[in-house]
Amino acid sequence: MIVYWLLLLLTAFVAYVFGSLDTMVIASNFFFRHNLRRLGTGNRWLSNFRRIFGLPGFIKLAIAEILKDLIPILIGGMLLGFKDHADVGRAFACFCLVLGRLYPVFYGFKGSHASIALIVGAFAVNTSAGGAALVVLAGLAFLTRYLSLATVAEAVVLIMVAVLIIDDAMLMRLLIFSAVLVIFKHIPAMIRLVQGKEFRYSLEEDITYKLDERF
To answer: What is the pTM of this model?
Structure first.
């Protein structure tokens, strides 16, 4: 039992740290060889990255983000796999990863949307749940241009699908907890949306200055 708890703690630590790492800062410093805070508007958010490195850089960033989120989930599955609970390890790592993405220790606990982390984690637990969340996120973001609304809808759909199709109670709860974290973090954004103050992104050339995270 002690070994099991140690494996859980190690999984939590690895996943949270990976979630707390800002992919944009890492990519700009180590792959593009520029300090994001010293370029453009000086912020580390998506708008400044997109404005500086363009669409090719943005695509590379998305790939790096997916890989960064996938690594701790695979590690969680491997660690808990020693106790024949690989699925629980992946689901628990997803929860800790989302927690780190929303409340990163390295950036004053001010994080981002965690939409990609939630989808990657959902796919690792159940491909149908991950697919449903991805379709909703992509479709609603395209139709409404509100990334925050699409992220909340993604989380809500994930909860519904998890309840309907996941038989394992622990896996279902961990996915639900992960989605609830995302919804809770976006309450201020939903209030701004109702008030007509939420940012709406555009697909025009300089799109991402409207995608700065304001949570």
So the answer is: 0.81
